[in-house]
Amino acid sequence: MANTVYVLNGSNLNMLGKREPHIYGHTTLAQIQERCEALSCDLGLDCVFRQTNDEAKMIDWIQEAFEKEAGLIINPAGFSFGSIPVLDAVKLLAKPVIEVHITNIHRRDPQYHHSLISLAATGVICGMGPNGYLLALRAMAEALQA
C-alpha cells in the first residue's frame, strides 16, 4: 500500500500566475499540481492536492490527513502568520510535516518573517519557487520510508 501525502495550499494560492508575478512567478497552481502528481506517482506516493481560502476548510483537511495517517506538505500562505487554529491542527500529525513557501519569507517584509506553522513543521522549504513542492515530495518520500 502506498503512503499518502496531502499537499495543502492556503489563501490566494489559487491566483498563482496572476497575483504579483514579480514575486511569485508565472507558474499556476494547476501546473504545480500536475508536477506534484507526476512526481508522487514516480515516488510511489498517493497525492491529495488541494487549495482553499477558508481557514476552517484547511483545518478540516489537516484533520483528515491526521485521520488517514498521511504525511503533510503545506503551503499555508497567509494562514502562516496568524492562524493558531491551523497550527493546532498541524500539531495533531504524527507523520512528517513539510512547510513550503514559494518565496524566501525571510527576505520579505517583516510581517512575513515568522510563520507560526514552522513551530510544528518537521522541515521548511522556502525561496525555491514552485520547485520547493518537488523538493518537499522527495523529502517526504524518504521520510516515510524510514
Explained architecture:
With 146 residues, this protein is of the alpha/beta class. It has a single domain (3-104, 116-145), classed as Dehydroquinase, class II (Rossmann fold). The chain is 37% helix and 22% strand. The protein has five helices and five strands. It has helices at 21-24, 29-43, 55-67, 84-90, 131-145; strands at 3-11, 45-51, 71-77, 97-101, 123-126. It has a five-stranded parallel sheet, with helices on both faces. Helix 4 links the parallel strand 3 (71-77) and strand 4 (97-101). Helix 2 packs parallel to helix 5 (131-145) and helix 3 (55-67) packs parallel to helix 4. The longest helix is centred in the first third of the chain and has 15 residues, at 29-43. The protein is globular and about 40 Å long. The two termini are 15 Å apart. The mean pLDDT is 94.
The run of helices and strands is EHHEHEHEEH
Rg from alpha-carbon coordinates:
14 Å
Mean pLDDT, nearest integer? Answer: 94
Number of domains: 1
CATH topology: Rossmann fold
Task: Break the fold down into its secondary structure elements and pairings.
Layout: E1 3-11, H1 21-24, H2 29-43, E2 45-51, H3 55-67, E3 71-77, H4 84-90, E4 97-101, E5 123-126, H5 131-145
Parallel strand pairs: 1-2, 1-3, 3-4, 4-5
Helix pairs in contact: 2-5, 3-4
